[in-house]
Design a protein that fits this description.
Layout (H helix, E strand, L loop, with lengths): L2 H26 L5 H27 L4 E2 L1 H12 L6 H14 L16 H13 L12 H4 L1 H4 L2 H8 L1 H19 L4 H28 L31 H6 L15 H11 L3 E2 L6 H7 L16 H10 L4
Antiparallel strand pairs: 1-2
Helix pairs in contact: 1-10, 2-3, 2-4, 2-9, 2-10, 3-8, 5-10, 9-10
The protein binds zinc ion (2 copies).
Length: 322
Amino acid sequence: MTRLERNANIAAVIIPFAGVIAAGVLLWHHLLGPLDIALFAAMYLTTAIGITVGFHRLLTHRAFETHRPLRYALAVLGSMAIEGSVIDWVADHRKHHTFADEEGDPHSPHVHSAPGLKGMLQGLWHAHAGWLFSEHGQASSRRYAADLLADPTMRRINRSFPALALASLLLPALLGFALSGGSATAALAAFIWAGLVRIFLVHHITWSINSVCHFFGRRRFDTRDRSTNVFWLALPSLGEAWHHNHHAFPRSAFHGLRWYELDPSGWIIRALAAIGLAWDVVRVDPARAAAREVARNDDLPAEAPAQDAGEAAERELLGVSA
Ligand SMILES: [Zn+2]
Ligand SMILES: [Zn+2]
């Protein structure tokens, strides 16, 4: 990782945090209006969907197919979450699935973690944000994201990441200015709430999937990693917190596999399919899921069991090898 990349990532962590502090000051002065809330919600949902439906389920795992304009629009929206450029993100995440919780996983809380409380906290910090300063963007895109590299438009979106990140911050300010009839205070408030605070929350919810969802929570499949399902993160993460289900069936478009496992990203893919904007949607055969379930949570081995044949097939479909 170059010094520039490292410094950029440090800035990407610290500046939204400073925005949260500024937001506290605004709250103190009652500077949170309906316009700020509406812009925050719109920016949170569109950029988080860019990550969950776009970067993750469509581009990394090919959980469904769609028209090229929608594919590129999702890649642009995901870039505006400021979690790195699209090809780097996909390469890092495919590497995570390839080595899940073993040597080579860019953000496992378990690899190299020392015993005891201190080791546990160090592991969780590495999985949450520490990896951004050492491992982020280091997976070989030629090896892990050759399909995206072969697409000139995707390469252009990848190169445009710095401009898209800037646009993601300036757009809320512009909208706040325009929709308030030209108020500079409204522009500043929108910049802080729908820009910085929104990025802070999208970041930490996404990173919680890497830290919390490989540490706390429940398991029910015999997977070779230590992923977990975390119900209280399901809604803010738009369904990504059913992360153990996802490691068991990486290509499934739906991470919530039971009716009560709320999965808004899955609902969006279902809606896109209903109006003809998504097809070849990958679904888990319920019989196959049931066959892989282990009777009780406690029966699951703490360490990685033998690799499942279905998982090997899914890795091959992903185009990555261990
Ligand atoms: Zn994982
Ligand atoms: Zn994944």
